[in-house]
């Protein structure tokens, strides 16, 4: 198997028209809590490497990788080509964890004076300006992303932001950039924009210029205010491609959920503990909504609501179609204290977040209860086992596309293919 990846690693993932599935990976926003999905991603990539060799990378398997805020940064890291090896990503999934551990404390400096004066600072800071100036983050992102632009990613990406001048979302999509060259922004600008969480980091302004010299202005903040869970946005971008007659997806129908294989990773939440109450909120003014209970209620609520609504919708659709095994949502709603923060980057808290991610792998696969909104364990299968199952399907799908595509130039051993893979018909569920 490893020799197969070695021979084909220079060949990008072939279009879904040669396979059975449309593969989507989505990563929520959540600031420093990006460590949690980072730990999950490292495990998934390691499972793919066991199947296909050490050169396997997540970008080799997903038609779309979507990310908002910290998830957008992870998305860019996983898909930004290495300048020394254009067909491989700059970062392996295992590098994400180290990135957050080493750079997180510099992005969100925990100065002793702030910790001592935290109550006063939290009241004054939202009035005086963002909590962090973002200078280190901006320099770091520009260094890591280099001069690469949206159209150069190794697989399709979808990264939401929000334009505060036009009061509407701006979606940086590999699909849209083919029709709208004005959104072919530098990856560094996209990452800085989608990470600009209100009250935490400054809004980001930049311009792009097309070949005719037309300038477009962008006035952007964190995409989490509109789509903190970008899974549905990614699926929407695919649907537009199908409806537009893209040959990459023929003969797939726009709403054929049987053909979707979706992994959606959350960054954790404090839902189980109960963060705010109506009695307390009834007394809040502007400052109360900006800083109460050790958090930023207005931002917390917007982002949690946008994440949950997507999960509610997708879970209800996949359940109604009896396709639960095609959709894997990995989330932990039991965080508390500093673990639930988006910016407490102390050594202890970062280590604890890694442990949360590792423990989450061992927990049973959970489904959102459509009545209570809470996560309920409904299967004996753990998240770790589910990811192994998805890894097998991803590996088989890549091999199938290579075999059917004129660009594959490889013959795969029959024993690694499920008979349904060679039938040419649509998948009726997750391939095992």
TrEMBL record:
Pfam family, one: Patatin
Organism domain of life: Eukaryota
Residue numbers covered by motif GXGXXG: 29-34
UniProt-listed GO biological process terms: defense response; lipid catabolic process
UniProt-annotated catalytic positions: 69, 222
Enzyme Commission identifier(s): 3.1.1.-
UniProt record similarity statement: Belongs to the patatin family.
Protein name as it appears in the record: Patatin
The organism of origin for this protein: Punica granatum
């Amino acid at each position: 198997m490893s020799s197969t990846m070695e021979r084909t690693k220079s060949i990008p993932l072939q279009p879904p028209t040669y396979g059975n599935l449309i593969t989507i990976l989505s990563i929520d926003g959540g600031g420093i809590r990006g460590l949690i999905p980072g730990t999950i991603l490292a495990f998934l990539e390691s499972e793919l490497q066991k199947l296909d060799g050490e050169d396997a990378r997540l970008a080799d398997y997903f038609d779309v990788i979507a990310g908002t805020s910290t998830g957008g940064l992870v998305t860019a890291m996983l898909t930004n080509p290495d300048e020394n090896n254009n067909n491989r990503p700059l970062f392996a999934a295992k590098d994400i964890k180290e990135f957050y551990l080493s750079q997180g404390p510099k992005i969100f400096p925990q100065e002793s004076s702030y910790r001592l004066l935290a109550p006063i600072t939290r009241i004054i800071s939202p009035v005086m300006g963002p909590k962090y100036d973002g200078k280190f983050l901006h320099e770091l992102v520009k260094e890591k992303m280099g001069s690469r632009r949206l159209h150069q990613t190794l697989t399709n990406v979808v990264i939401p932001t929000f334009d505060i001048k036009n009061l509407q979302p701006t979606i940086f999509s590999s699909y849209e950039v083919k029709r709208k060259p004005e959104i072919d922004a530098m990856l560094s600008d996209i990452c800085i924009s989608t990470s600009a969480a209100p009250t935490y980091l400054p809004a980001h302004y930049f311009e792009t210029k097309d070949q005719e010299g037309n300038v477009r202005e962008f006035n952007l903040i964190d995409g989490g205010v509109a789509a903190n869970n970008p899974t549905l946005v990614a699926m929407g971008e695919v649907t537009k491609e199908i409806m537009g007659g893209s040959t990459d997806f023929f003969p797939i129908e726009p709403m054929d959920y049987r053909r979707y294989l979706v992994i959606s990773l959350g960054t954790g939440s404090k839902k189980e503990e109960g963060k705010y109450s109506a009695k307390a909120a009834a007394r809040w003014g502007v400052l109360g909504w900006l800083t109460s209970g050790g958090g930023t209620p207005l931002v917390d609520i917007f982002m949690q609501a946008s994440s949950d609504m997507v999960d509610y919708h997708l879970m209800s659709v996949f359940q109604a179609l009896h396709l639960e095994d095609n959709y894997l949502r990995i989330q932990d709603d039991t965080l508390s204290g500093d673990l639930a923060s988006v910016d407490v980057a102390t050594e202890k808290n970062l280590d604890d977040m890694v442990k949360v991610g590792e423990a989450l792998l061992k927990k049973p696969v959970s489904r959102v209860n459509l009545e209570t909104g809470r996560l309920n364990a409904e299967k004996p299968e753990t998240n770790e086992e589910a990811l192994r199952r998805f890894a097998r399907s991803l590996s088989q799908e890549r091999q199938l596309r290579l075999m059917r595509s004129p660009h594959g130039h490889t013959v795969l051993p029959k024993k690694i293919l499920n008979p349904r893979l060679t039938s040419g018909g649509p998948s009726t569920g997750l391939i095992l």
